[in-house]
Design goal:
488 residues; alpha/beta; 3 domains; Rossmann fold; two-stranded antiparallel sheet; single chain
Length: 488
C-alpha cells in the first residue's frame, strides 16, 4: 500500500481508558500525561547471543575429546559432526544455553539434563553407524568410554564457565527492579544487597505507595508507580533484570519488551512459561526465569520455515517478478520498486519493498496517508498488481533478510504505529513477534481499509496461541485466497 488517507480507521469504544498503558498494565500514567504513552522504544536484547558461545564451545570440546577414545575407524568427520549437532540441538531445546539464574545455577544442577541428552546423542549416533555400515558398529565398551569422557569433559568445562560468570557477577552486578508490594520487595532487595554473589543490584521497587510506605523504600530505593517512571528507571540505571514477587501480566510484557530478563520468585504466574533449565534460588527465594512468548515458542523453527519456503519461492517467482517489473516500468515510468520505512519486531525500523502501484505526490503523503483502493492516479497495471497482491512479492526478499516472517502481523509505518497505539489498546503488543507477509487477520479478510481494532485483536490472538502448524495453515489459506483475489 503506497498512500494513506488522513483519517484513522477506528470503531466506537476502541479508545483505552485514560492512563492505561498499551500493554495492559494497570499502572496509572503520570498526571497531565494523558495520551502520552511510551510507544515501542527500541528494544535492547536481553542477553547477547555470544553469552551462549562458551557453553557451545564446552559441548564441542567434549565431543572432540570423546571421539578420541573411539577407534581410528570411527574418527571420521561424520561421527563428531553428527554427535555435536545432536547434542547442541537437544541442549538448545532444553534451554541449557540460555543464561541460568545468574550465580544461582551450577553445573551439578545441570548434570542430569546434560548426561541424559549426551546419552541420547551417542546412542543415536551408534545406531546410525551400525545401520549405515554394520561392519563399523561401535563396540559397547568404547561407546561407554566415549560417553563417560563426554560427560566428564562437559562437566569440567561448564564448571569453569559458571565459575567465571559468578566472579563477573560479583564484580559487575546487573541493575534490577523488584516488582511487588513495597514491604516484601524491600525485604527481598535487602537480602540481595547483603549477598552480592548473586550478581543482582536492586535499584528500585515497582508497586504502589500504600501499606504505610513513604515515597522511598529501605536504603533509599524509589517506589515506581507509573509506566513513565519505569521507563525512565530502565534507561537511566541500565536495568537488565526484573524480579517479580507478584503476578502482573501487563508488567511482565512491558519489561520483556524493554529487553529485561524477567524472573519469578515463588510460583509461576498464570499464562507465563518458566524455563525449567533455569531454576535456582536467590538466598533461599525460589527463582524461575520467565520467557517471553517470542523466545519460548520456537522462533528458530519459524525462521527455518521462512528460509525454507521464501528462498525457493523467490527463485520460482523470478519470471513473474520480471514481468511485473516490466509492466510497472512501461505504465508508470522509472522507479519500479517502492521503498518505505516500516516498524518491525520490537519497534525496529526496516525498509519494506513493493512494486510501485502509484506515485505519491511527496514523501509526506506516502508516510501519512491511508491506502485508497481505487485511487484515480493508479494505472491499469498498478490496479492489477494491487488486486492480485503481486505488488507484495518483493517482500520475499525482506523475509530472507530477516526483516519479516512469512506469517505475522502486517507491518505499518511509524506515523500510524504511534497513532494506533494511542487509540487502540494492545496495538503496540503486536510487535512482540516478527511482522509478516500474511497473517491471521489477513486470511479473515482484514486487509486494506478495514477495522484496526479487529486486526489488532486477531494479531494478538495469533501471537498468544502461536504454533508452527498455525503458520502452515495460514500460508495454505493465503494460497487459496490468491485464487480468488480481493486485493488490498
Amino acid at each position: 500500500m503506497t498512500t494513506e488517507s488522513t483519517s484513522i480507521p477506528s470503531s466506537p469504544g476502541s479508545r483505552p481508558a485514560a492512563g492505561r498503558f498499551p500493554y495492559g498494565s494497570a499502572l496509572a500514567a503520570p498526571r497531565g500525561a494523558a495520551g502520552r504513552r511510551p510507544v515501542l522504544p527500541p528494544r535492547r536484547p536481553a542477553r547477547p547471543r555470544r553469552a551462549a558461545a562458551p557453553l557451545v564451545a564446552a559441548d564441542a570440546a567434549a565431543v572432540l575429546l570423546a571421539v578420541a577414545v573411539l577407534s581410528a575407524a570411527h574418527r571420521r568427520w561424520e561421527v563428531p559432526l553428527f554427535v555435536a549437532a545432536f547434542v547442541m540441538l537437544l541442549d538448545g531445546r532444553a534451554g541449557l544455553y540460555r543464561p541460568s539464574a545468574g550465580a544461582r545455577g551450577g553445573v551439578l544442577d545441570e548434570l542430569p539434563a546434560l548426561a541424559a541428552r549426551a546419552g541420547v546423542a551417542w546412542c543415536g549416533t551408534a545406531a546410525a553407524v551400525a545401520a549405515y555400515a554394520p561392519g563399523m558398529a561401535i563396540a559397547p565398551l568404547r561407546l561407554g568410554a566415549a560417553y563417560g569422557t563426554h560427560v566428564l569433559v562437559v562437566t569440567v568445562a561448564r564448571g569453569l564457565v559458571h565459575a567465571r560468570r559468578r566472579r563477573m557477577a560479583r564484580e559487575r552486578p546487573r541493575s534490577a527492579l523488584v516488582v511487588g508490594a513495597p514491604g516484601a520487595a524491600r525485604r527481598f532487595a535487602a537480602a540481595l544487597a547483603q549477598h552480592p554473589e548473586y550478581g543482582i543490584r536492586p535499584v528500585g521497587i515497582v508497586g504502589t505507595r500504600h501499606d504505610g510506605a513513604g515515597p522511598d523504600g529501605e536504603r533509599g530505593l524509589p517506589v515506581l508507580t507509573s509506566a513513565e517512571e519505569i521507563h525512565r528507571a530502565v534507561i537511566q540505571n541500565t536495568v537488565r533484570d526484573a524480579v517479580f514477587l507478584s503476578d502482573d501480566a501487563g508488567l511482565l510484557t512491558l519489561f520483556q519488551h524493554f529487553g529485561c530478563v524477567t524472573w519469578r520468585v515463588g510460583r509461576t504466574p498464570s499464562g507465563a512459561t518458566a524455563a525449567g533449565a533455569m531454576n535456582g534460588h536467590l538466598w533461599g527465594y525460589g527463582c524461575r526465569r520467565l520467557l517471553p512468548a517470542a523466545e519460548r515458542r520456537g522462533l528458530t523453527a519459524k525462521r527455518a520455515l521462512d528460509v525454507a519456503l521464501a528462498g525457493p519461492a523467490l527463485a520460482f517467482a523470478l519470471p513473474v517478478l520480471l514481468l511485473c517489473a516490466l509492466a510497472v516500468r512501461l505504465s508508470d515510468g522509472p522507479g519500479v520498486l517502492f521503498r518505505q520505512e516500516r516498524v518491525g519486531q520490537h519497534g525496529r525500523l526496516f525498509t519494506l519493498l513493493k512494486f510501485r502501484t502509484l506515485r505519491p505526490s511527496d514523501e509526506t503523503e506516502a508516510a501519512t496517508r491511508w491506502s485508497v483502493a481505487h485511487d484515480r492516479r493508479m494505472s491499469a497495471a498498478g490496479q492489477f498488481l494491487r488486486k492480485t497482491s503481486l505488488d507484495e512479492l518483493p517482500q520475499l526478499w525482506n523475509v530472507l533478510r530477516g526483516d519479516m516472517s512469512l506469517v505475522g502481523p502486517r507491518p505499518e509505518r511509524p506515523h500510524f504505529v504511534a497513532q494506533f497505539s494511542r487509540v487502540h489498546a494492545g496495538y503496540a503488543a503486536r510487535h512482540r513477534m516478527p511482522v509478516g507477509l500474511t497473517g491471521l487477520a489477513q486470511v479473515h479478510g482484514l486487509r486494506g481499509d478495514t477495522s484496526i481494532e479487529d486486526r489488532c485483536r486477531f494479531d494478538n490472538h495469533y501471537i498468544d496461541h502461536w504454533s508452527l502448524w498455525q503458520d502452515v495453515c495460514i500460508l495454505l489459506r493465503t494460497a487459496a485466497e490468491l485464487v480468488r483475489p480481493t486485493g488490498s
